[in-house]
Design a protein that fits this description.
Layout lengths: L1 H56 L2 H24 L5 H34 L11 H17 L2
């Protein structure tokens, strides 16, 4: 029963982690879309007005360079906001719970497997293998090891 409970805990923790990851990635996508839309809006709507104003004071080449620098700053700020994405505390805790549950599950399954193999070896073909005598213990260990190795 413990193995099933651990598997359920691991599955629940992974589901929670994936929901948080999807939410975080959705926010990243939204910020990326805003950066792209803002970049286009700046290029289309503001450039003409700023260029016309700058041409009154500086040469057209210098006006273009100033607009380019402004575009790079705005795009850089929005791009960094889209890239900044750290896992939340809930995601990290869910991941730690999942890892621990999977470690416990592996240990529990290994113990159940060994007990099952030992019981199957001891009571195979209707005869009982005694484990009290040294010969029986050695034989049991040898049979158990052989069966486990043959499965790999």
């Amino acid at each position: 029963m413990r193995a099933v409970e651990l598997a359920k805990v691991a599955a629940n923790a992974e589901a929670l982690r994936l929901r948080q990851l999807a939410s975080r990635q959705g926010m990243r996508a939204a910020y990326g879309a805003v950066a792209a839309v803002f970049g286009l809006a700046v290029l289309v709507l503001v450039h003409v007005v700023l260029y016309d104003i700058l041409v009154l004071y500086v040469s057209p080449l210098v006006a273009s360079v100033i607009l380019l620098a402004l575009d790079l700053v705005v795009a850089g700020i929005c791009g960094l906001k889209a890239l900044k994405s750290t896992p939340s505390a809930i995601e990290e805790e869910a991941l730690a719970i999942r890892k621990q549950a999977l470690i416990d599950l592996k240990g529990s399954v290994m113990v159940m497997s060994l007990v099952g193999e030992a019981a199957g070896t001891m009571f195979r073909r209707g005869r009982t293998v005694t484990v009290v005598k040294p010969r029986g213990t050695v034989r049991l260990a040898g049979e158990l090891a052989a069966r486990l190795m043959s499965r790999r």
